[in-house]
Amino acid sequence: MSVTAVAAGTRAAAGPEGAPEEVRRGRRSTPYLLLLPGMAWLVLFFAVPVFALASLSLQTRVPGAEIGVYTQTFRWANYSDALAEYAPQFLRSLLYAGLATLLCLLIGYPLAYAIALKAGRWRNLMLIAVIAPFFTSFILRTIAWRQVLADSGPVTSTLHTLHILPPGESLTASGTAVVAGLTYNFLPFMVLPLYASLERLDPRLVEAAGDLYATAPVGFRRVTFPLSMPGVVAGTLLTFIPAAGDYVNAALLGNPSTQMIGNVVDSRFFRVVDYPTAAALSFVLMAAILLLVTAYIRRAGTEELV
Amino acid sequence: MSWLRRNLVMIVALLVLVYLFVPIAYTIAFSFNNAGRSNLVWQGFTTKNWTNPCGAPEVCSALVNSLKIGFLATVVATALGTMVAFALARHRFRGRSATNLLIFLPMATPEVVLGAALLSLFLNVGLEPGFWTIVIAHVMFCVSFVVVTVKARLAGLDPRIEQAAMDLYADEWQTFRRVTLPLAAPGILAAALLSFALSFDDFIITNFNSGNVTTFPKFVYVSAARGIPAQANVIGTAMFVVALLVVLIGQLLSRRRAV
Predict the structure, then answer these.
(1) Residue B151 and residue A38: Cα distance in Å, rounded?
(2) CATH number of A200's domain
(3) What three-state secondary structure class fits A3?
């Protein structure tokens, strides 16, 4: 009955609203009882695993033992070794994810704007169309992209005919294809929060800007866009974070020289059974993303998330 | 020219929607491809893949695994997440910001890290990855999304309705069961659907914690190297149609209620 103990211990700190003493005793423990199962799950299967990962990242191989047996030696050099070896993949992950996020913002903004402010009675239908890709498998769609962009596919042959793509060059198995795939896969994550913040926008504010002789572009730059900033921030985070850790697009649409950090973690874990390197790389990725996210939120000046 | 200028945003938006639909159309079309083992090149129209959806080895067992895991993960995550959402929306308690952080962090962590972390725990305690470790993992990443979804619904409810119930001598439990829960139900249903979709489509975390068990996304990924059977496209298309119908029916129902 530790929950009751916790509840009793915090009684003094709880809210001041007055209820009869008998009821109050029941109410004080209620939130903790409600929280317990869910929070226990997250502690056991999220927080504890993160510590297990941290511990694993500092281990070294037991000399003479079979593959996959490691012991804790607090070898911090695992981190510098891993980073020295995989810096290109690491930087490429951040670059590809950044490019995909930027592209998502550029093509997602007009879409969200149109749905929120121009679609009228087509609004719900267009929203459904935005989330429709989620209704089929993410892997199937990525593979479909591979086939659309394949050498024999329609896109490549058109680009060849128009001499936009030099003869003999292909679109698949390239960095371009990986960025295109990432952009495609995470676009809805950008559009939905953008839509949510644009939909709340009071059109009278934009009209007021017009009344004050702002041209349409100025009105957009000074009124509409700043007001949609919470959506831009949320969309950027929801796109960048999964894109930086993704390895499916790089594996299915890229080539060995377009590998991202997720590919390295995956292959270190499963093909090479080099757990410490994989763990160290995962940890650095998590730290880098948390740092970037914090800096970005500070910079963008909003605390509103998701 | 002015027509173009006025409708430029809409035209761009429709082009982006087309871009979103290209791979879906491709997946649907190739479910009707008269292909042999690898479904790469169009070889003529057939419905044989649809009449024999389990024709390719393993595809249906993988689908059944995904459905089972999705169902279990949805039930557990929705129950746990809804309780947490109620605590956050309706109660004052100490440790609120720690709770919020623990809910936010899994959503802000890349899937590779979540998958690798959970696998290192399972390796540490000597638990063999398999069916149940997948369920554990899926509940873990679904809970946060359930909390956010249900909490948003609860935040939009007028607290005076509950106060009115209390004024009419309903006790806490009666108020919850007869007033709050029915009002929160659409949010809980949305959270459950979201959980199922997240679980059913998850590949990265599953791949880390599945051992020899194959789910549908894992089946597709693994068979990508040697060619995906057209039956995978059949299942993908069927899922698409079912999900689309669910959403459209939901839309119609809510519209009718509004009228």
Answers:
(1) 14
(2) 1.10.3720.10
(3) helix
Name the minimum distance, in Å, from the CA of A163 to any CA of chain B.
Answer: 22
User: For chain A, what is the domain count?
Assistant: 2
Asked if the model's pLDDT at residue B220 lies above 50, the reply is: yes
Rounded Cα gap, residues A217 and B8, in angstroms? 14
Provide the ipTM: 0.88
SS3 B231: helix
- What is the full DSSP assignment across B57-98? TTHHHHHHHHHHHHHHHHHHHHHHHHHHHHHHHH---TTHHH
User: Which of A24, A30, A42 is most worth mutating to test chain B (most B CB atoms within 10 A of its CB)?
Assistant: A42
Which of B120, B221, B246 to probe by mutation at the A interface, max A CB count within 10 Å?
A: B120
Same domain, A143 and A279: yes
Residues of B in contact with A183 (CB under 8 A): none
Q: Tell me, yes or no, whether A231 and A171 share the same domain.
A: yes
Q: Of A45, A134, A150, which has the smallest distance from its Cβ to B197's Cβ?
A: A134
Q: Residue B68, CB half-sphere, CA atoms under 13 Å: how many? A: 12
Homologous superfamily of B57-228 in CATH? MetI-like (1.10.3720.10)
The Cα of A264 is separated from the nearest Cα of chain B by a number of Å equal to 10
Q: What are the sequence ranges of the domains in chain B?
A: 57-228
Element (H, E) at A72: strand A70-72
C-alpha B217/C-alpha B210 separation (Å) is 12
Helix locations, chain A, DSSP H: 2-9, 21-42, 48-56, 77-113, 123-131, 138-148, 154-161, 175-199, 203-211, 216-219, 225-227, 229-245, 248-253, 261-270, 275-300
Q: Which positions ≥6 away from B256 have C-beta within 8 Å?
A: none
Alpha carbons within 13 A on the beta-carbon side of B75: 6
Q: Are residues A290 and A185 in the same domain?
A: yes
What is the pTM for the complete model shown?
0.86
The distance from CA B51 to its chain's CA centroid, rounded to whole angstroms, is 27
- Top mean pLDDT of A62-71, A286-295, B246-255 is at A286-295
Q: Please check whether residue B200 is in contact with residue B191, taking contact to mean a CB–CB distance below 8 angstroms.
A: no
- Do A133 and A188 meet the contact criterion of CB atoms below 8 Å apart? yes
* Per-residue model confidence as pLDDT tens digits over B163-204: 898 889 888 888 888 888 898 998 999 899 999 999 999 999
From A230, A181, A180, A199, select the one nearest A111 (Cα to Cα). Answer: A199
